[in-house]
Design the sequence.
């Protein structure tokens, strides 16, 4: 019988344990096998949840940045009936993070898939944005170079206007300032823009207003995890 793959969310902000459901703490107390995005991060998180956990007894399979996940290892564990946890760097695994390929493999083997409740910066930012939550799309990272970047922003704004759809995307923190500048330059004044930064942290900042108002009031785009949302 194939085993179980637990999809384990972790805090978006450092040490924000309260953002994860009690079930996460309970499940991770017993697991001995993990597929993780970063072993050091996973160890630190497990230690914060379980100070007395013997980490040396736990096996970690790290998702290589170049070669991807060790799929044969996951298959061996699941075929042996093991309970395996999958953990990304922050938030929910397989959502804007590596992991969907591994979940698909687990399905193919007939394993049980157990998604656990926890923070997703995408959903939390949408909830707090005041923008439409009935119809939305997440695009991950937009193109970095021009003219592809401006073209994509304009295309997303047009799609939002036609379909009344909230468009959601993210950026590498050190490029937040350039992303903000590109949005102000390419979007119509009436388009609404929400900036959600450091969700779950003590200095969390979420603000929504029109492009015109953003231009008037200005904004310092900190180099922290940020979600951008627009609705035309």
Sequence:
């Amino acid at each position: 019988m194939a085993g179980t793959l637990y999809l384990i969310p972790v805090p978006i902000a450092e040490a924000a344990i309260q953002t994860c459901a009690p079930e996460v703490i309970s499940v991770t107390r017993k697991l001995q096998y993990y597929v993780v995005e970063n072993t050091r991060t996973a160890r630190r998180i497990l230690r914060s949840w379980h100070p007395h956990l013997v980490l040396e007894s736990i096996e970690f399979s790290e998702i290589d940045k170049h070669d991807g996940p060790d799929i044969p290892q996951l298959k061996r564990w699941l075929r042996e009936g093991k309970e395996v946890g999958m953990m990304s760097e922050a938030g929910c695994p397989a959502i804007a993070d590596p992991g969907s390929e591994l979940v698909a493999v687990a399905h193919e083997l007939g394993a049980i898939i157990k998604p656990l409740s926890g923070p997703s910066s995408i959903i939390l930012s949408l909830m707090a944005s005041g923008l439409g939550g009935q119809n939305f799309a997440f695009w991950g990272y937009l193109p970095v170079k021009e003219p592809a970047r401006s073209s994509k922003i304009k295309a997303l704004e047009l799609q939002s206007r036609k379909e009344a759809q909230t468009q959601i995307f993210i950026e590498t923190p050190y490029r937040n300032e350039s992303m903000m500048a590109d949005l102000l330059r390419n979007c119509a004044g009436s388009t609404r823009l929400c900036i959600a930064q450091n969700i779950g942290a003590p200095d969390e900042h979420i603000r929504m207003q029109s492009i015109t108002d953003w231009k008037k009031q200005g904004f310092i785009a900190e180099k922290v995890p940020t979600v951008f949302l627009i609705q035309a």
In short: The chain has two domains: 4-115, 121-231. Strands lie at 4-8, 33-36, 59-62, 83-87, 112-115, 136-141, 166-171, 192-197, 205-210, 226-231. Residues 4-115 form a domain with the Cobalt-precorrin-4 Transmethylase; domain 1 fold (CATH 3.40.1010.10).
